[in-house]
Amino acid sequence: MKTTKPTPRFAICVDNSEYPASLELHKIYRVLSDKEAQADGDMRIIDESGEDYLFPADYFIPIELPPTIVRALNKSFAPMPAHA
Known about the structure:
By secondary structure, the chain is α+β, with helices and mostly antiparallel strands.
């Protein structure tokens, strides 16, 4: 069976008031799809190390980017975590 990588989405941080050491304002973060987190009002964000963490969804604005920019960003980030 072929394993597929999760499709990266992106969001910009617009509030880091509760997590100033973990989140940078106006920074673009990768987002992993997580329906359970979304139902709880959270978003699964991937940090610089490639690890993912839950943060309040209202701390971010989801953005759509052209494919060329997505490819360039993906090359500059740590590898995506493998989730089952």
